[in-house]
Design brief:
Layout: E1 3-8, H1 13-26, E2 30-35, E3 55-56, H2 68-82, E4 86-89, H3 95-106, E5 110-115, H4 126-138, E6 141-144, H5 147-155, E7 163-165, H6 172-184, H7 186-193, E8 199-203, H8 212-225, E9 232-236, H9 242-251, E10 256-258, E11 277-279, H10 288-294, E12 297-300, H11 309-316, E13 321-324, H12 330-333, E14 340-343, H13 348-356, H14 361-374, H15 380-395
Parallel strand pairs: 1-2, 1-4, 2-3, 4-5, 5-6, 6-7, 8-9, 8-12, 9-11, 10-11, 12-13, 13-14
Helix pairs in contact: 1-15, 2-3, 6-10, 6-11, 8-13
């Protein structure tokens, strides 16, 4: 095996970290990094330290602008030109991913599916479900996120021995080091950003599936149960539901601290007088370790989630994690009562009960330590070594 391709719709920082490790593991084989477009409306990443040899097939375009046939022909031409023998592909959906799969198979190239879907995120029914089964079985092997994902794709007919775990990973060492640096200057960072002394952290897009109203309602219950306890909720992100979330805070009598413009908050410098909700807007990957480092716990309340890379990040930063039972990472990353808690995402009281456990500072520290231990091995090196196994499985029997 001399030439391997790996395709994503658009390379963000998480993809770049995995690519670097994959190239180390597969050396001396050439790993060609292809992206379909040069931007995405869903993820406004700012790329730094980007390898110069990423091949952008449709420069100047966003991923959601790409039609099936232009993607098919551009991928087919480039894979043939590079003489790729096996290609790692971002699933079979949406149509741009399907086009890349068809292009690879039309050239007789062995394919590895990269995917983090599971039964809880599956939406296909009837004929669409039957088509999905056929498409999944067309792949020669798979690299999936975790245990629920492995079960799901085995149920769709992909041989279990050709399904490998480890797709969703982050650069743990980077997050741990940056969080440690931030913790050493905690008071400076808190003053600069307007961060409160004790807070729960939420980080992600403000969209319906993230279930953020339940988090806000649970936070309100915590404050009602412990009126003398000074605790805050910090929300890093942006999206279509932001105004509704702010309105909910007002309805529940929660003070709003606005930091979205990069300032320390319109309600003044220093520790806020009243516990409330802080809106920080969207932040880039190099900014967020500070938010993890100074938090008491991280919360992912999603109604459904393919995986939840923010949980990996929080654990690498030695944070306890409070995660919806329906999140794709819950089974593999969260041990209830050890490094955090699992809860019913449709039950604000269940979440509130979990959050109130962090009134015990000793428990909080111990859970954070366990998180850092448990995330070891779920990293970019694990992604690369399991990708290598998947490639070998895909190539087995190849002429």
């Amino acid at each position: 095996m001399k030439s391997v391709g790996i395709i994503w719709s658009y390379y963000g920082p998480y993809h770049l970290a995995r690519l670097r490790e994959l190239r180390k593991v597969l050396a001396p084989a050439r790993v060609h990094a292809l992206e379909l477009a040069s931007g995405s409306h869903d993820n406004l990443w700012r790329r730094t330290n980007q390898p110069e040899d990423i091949i952008t097939l449709h420069p100047g375009r966003h991923t959601d602008e790409l039609a099936f046939w232009p993607v098919f022909w551009s991928v087919r031409r480039k894979l043939a030109e590079l003489e790729v023998e096996v290609c790692l592909l971002p699933s079979y959906f949406p149509k741009r991913s399907l086009a890349a799969l068809f292009a690879a198979k039309s050239l007789g190239i062995r394919t590895v599916m990269m995917n983090d879907s599971h039964s809880g995120t599956a939406r296909a029914r009837g004929l669409r479900f039957m088509a999905k089964r056929r498409l999944v079985q067309w792949f020669d092997a798979a690299l999936v996120a975790g245990t629920p994902q492995r079960r799901y794709f085995a149920s769709l007919g992909l041989p279990a021995e050709k399904i490998f775990i480890g797709y969703d990973a982050v650069d743990n060492d980077h997050f741990a080091a940056k969080a440690s640096e931030a913790a050493a200057r905690a008071s400076d960072h808190a003053a600069q950003l307007g961060l409160p002394e004790h807070y729960f952290l939420s980080l992600g897009r403000f969209i319906p599936k993230k279930n953020l109203p339940v988090l806000i309602r649970a936070f309100r219950r915590c404050l009602d149960a412990s009126p003398t306890k000074r605790m805050h909720l910090v929300m890093v992100g942006a999206g279509e539901e932001e105004q509704a979330l702010r309105s909910l805070c007002s309805d529940l009598g929660l003070p709003i601290y606005d930091h979205a413009d990069g300032g320390p908050g319109k309600n003044g410098h220093g520790e806020p007088a009243r516990s409330g909700v802080h809106f920080f807007g969207a932040r880039q990957i190099d900014e967020i370790p500070v938010f993890y480092a100074l938090a008491s716990a991280f919360v992912l309340p999603s109604l459904y989630e393919e995986w939840g890379l923010v949980v990996n990040e929080a654990m690498a930063c030695s944070l306890p994690v409070v995660v919806s039972r329906t999140a794709g990472c819950a089974e593999d990353l969260v041990k209830h009562g050890q490094n955090g808690f699992l809860f019913d995402p449709e039950n604000p009281e269940d979440l509130a009960n979990c959050l109130m456990q962090f009134e015990d500072d000793k428990l909080t520290r111990e859970m954070g330590r366990r998180s850092a231990e448990m995330i070891q091995g779920v990293d970019c090196h694990g992604f690369a070594t399991n990708a290598q196994r998947a490639i070998h499985a895909a190539m087995s029997g190849a002429k």
